[in-house]
Amino acid sequence: MLWSDPENEPPKELRDAQAMLRRAGLLLALAMVIAMFVLGTR
Question: Which residues cross the membrane (predicted)?
């Protein structure tokens, strides 16, 4: 790795999309847990 090498960082749009997908995945997992709990208590 040379000091003159460009930064190995994805563009801002890609980082934003990854963050959005991560949040969507967490939200989906939380919704699944709540749905299982609700269906289990019936």
Answer: 20-39
